[in-house]
Amino acid sequence: MRRYSASSELAPPSSAPRRDWQTIRSLLPYLAGYKARVALALACLIGAKVANLGVPIVMKRIVDGLVSMRQLTALGRAANDPAIVLAGGIGLLVVAYAVVRLSTSLFTELREILFSKVTESAVRELALKVFRHLHSLSLRFHLERQTGGMSRDIERGTRGIQQLISYSLYSILPTLVEVGLVLGFFIVKYEAYYAIVALVALVVYIVFTVKVTEWRTHLRRAMNELDSRANSRAIDSLLNYETVKYFGNEAWEAQRYDENLKRFRAAAIKSQNSLSLLNFGQQTIIGTALVFILWRATSGVMAGRLTLGDLVLINTFMLQLYIPLNFLGVVYRELKQALTDMDRMFTLLGAEREIPDEPGAQALAVRGAELEFRHVSFGYEAARQILYDVSFTIAAGTTTAVVGASGSGKSTLARLLFRFYDLERASGGSIRIDGQDIRDVTQDSLRQAIGIVPQDTVLFNDTIYYNIAYGRPTATREEVVAAARAAHIHDFIEGLPKGYETPVGERGLKLSGGEKQRVAIARTLLKNPPILVFDEATSALDSRSERAIQAELDQIARGRTTLVIAHRLSTVVHAHQIIVMEHGRIVERGTHAQLLAAGGAFAQMWALQQQRAVRDMGSGEQHDGVLRQAAD
After folding, report:
1. Which residue from 169, 127, 178 is spatially nearest to 37, judged by alpha carbons?
2. CATH number of this structure's domain 8-349
3. What is the pLDDT of residues 583-632, one digit of tens each?
4. Distance CA 524, CA 560 (A)
5. pLDDT at residue 145, as a whole number
6. Closest by alpha carbon to 471, among 392, 529, 413, 511?
7. Inter-CA distances, 146 with 229, 242, 412, 508, Å
8. CA–CA distance, 69 with 72 (Å, rounded to integer)
9. In 207-231, which positions are buried (b, 16+ CB within 10 angstroms) versus exposed (e)?
């Protein structure tokens, strides 16, 4: 019997946060295909910073030129004096200043244009990979997850990728390049004092920012957890809107949602308070460095070692460093938050498939579509065994019905057939189609060969046409309409104002239970598989519709291998074989006539259902009589 323990697939995404470098390394393969664009973008980045370095240098020349002109004019020089004319080149310097600043903007925008495709392509590839991976995970994984929380994890993760790439290329790297250029300029043009003070301030600033941000990271992670929990609670409540209304629990749902919001508010307040502490500390470090540097530069101007232009240049350089350096703290915080968000998405991507295809698995080769359950024992959990040594064969082109009380294991057979769960090979049990163990073939080919009409039909929030065509998306409109006719729903659809383009609403809630089930039948008919599974396919229909559709299902099942899981015994009278299950075991098998003649469990179930049918019919006749008397 298959038993399960906690696996990596079921581990909560936040149980073991990865290191930041692991998250970054996971992202690099998605950028590797754009090396040329990355190189050009980096070249534009360096060009922009070199041009930006020239801005204060040109401004220094302008200031010094203006000072020289005032001094020469004060000495009474004529306007055509060579010295005055030389200083008059300030006009050209102003033009040069504009050109240098424009060049900075040009290189910056070119960098954005070159790298935008890289960022968006990486986000698209990764989001698509996560989406496909989630579809490849087992039913158990999705039953133990809240879809709203997962969708937020993916949303924040993709946004985190954009932030990581954007901030790394547009903020961190440019700032580091600019810091290197400025420090080198200070050393070459002036003295090492300015470079040392700026470098010490930079190191202290970075260390302080990193330490405080690391301390704040757990607050961000807690906010994410509470945000996902509140969102999951809201989505779950809205998806079950009718249930909430049935029991009048709107206030209860609002209270539960508000409790999550209160916890999120408390975490958000703590995060904001720590952010204020970080910002004040950063401003203190930068302000102290500016005092030391400007004091030294001002003293140099007063002593005659520096010009007024030099003071302006040094101050401008420090402001140019100050602005991105101040932003660097914000960027680092955003990067840490982005890495935290990406961590959850990459953890989802790293969840192992509980039911992978075997290495070298071949596509299922369907010949006659004989279906065999051989010594099948299974349990969803170690302490909850569902099936005990179940064995039966459905000959190709015949119909076998499985009946029994709720909880006897009937629907589990369908789940095992679709490989939503797998049998342990060590148990010796297997499910075979034309002699092929379904564990040895690809899951795609297996599911293509089987069609199912489930008991609980859930439709996409789209049109009726889309939901029927989902059985075979490449089908023509004529084929879709033919499937609807076969399911006895075409006339109903044509009677709607929008016909086949009518939206069915969230999970198909705009349709009745019977209408949804007919859409599911039409969808399966369109798929046209060699093996059919009807899991209580007519349970949501009224008696008249049930008889009409049951006759159609009997017609459809001819020539196909069909497994019918039923509670109403009247729907399986014509089955070639009827399997009776109790508590996960087969207790009887045979045709309808044989089982009635045996006088066992099936005969008792038949008698009870017949009595109930007669009683319901009598109640209906009595009700009609009351109505007639009232009318008289």
Report:
1. 169
2. 1.20.1560.10
3. 889 999 999 999 999 988 889 988 888 887 666 555 544 444 433 443 34
4. 13
5. 61
6. 529
7. 9, 19, 23, 20
8. 5
9. ebbeebbeebbebbbbbbbbbbbbb
Measured distance CA(480)–CA(471) in Å, rounded: 9
**6-40 burial, b for 16+ CB within 10 Å, e for fewer?**
eeebbeebbeebbebeebeebbeebbeebeebbeb
Domain 363-449+529-632: CATH architecture, name and number where available: 3-Layer(aba) Sandwich (3.40)
Residues of the chain with pLDDT under 50: 1-17, 77-80, 84-85, 87, 620-632
Residue 410 to residue 388: CA distance in whole angstroms:
12
pLDDT for 540 equals 57
According to DSSP, the residues that pair with 460 across neighbouring strands are none
Give all strands (DSSP E) within 425-499, no chain letters: 430-433, 436-437, 450-453
Closest CA to 68 of 55, 86, 54: 86
Q: Give the pTM.
A: 0.59
Tell me the pLDDT tens digit for each residue of 454-482. 877 778 888 999 999 988 888 999 999 99
Q: How far apart are CA 188 and CA 494, in angstroms?
A: 84
Per-residue pLDDT, 4: 42
User: Hey, what are 180's tokens?
Assistant: 């290197």
Burial group, residue 515, by CB count within 10 angstroms (0-12, 13-18, 19+): buried
Domain locations along the chain: 8-349, 363-449+529-632, 459-526
Contact 27, 122 (CB under 8 A): yes
Q: Which two tokens stand for residue 144?
A: 């133990």
End-to-end Cα separation, the chain, in angstroms: 66
Residues 6+ apart with CB under 8 A from 563: 371, 394, 399, 400, 401, 402, 413, 414, 417, 531, 532, 533, 534
Tokens of 154: 């993916």
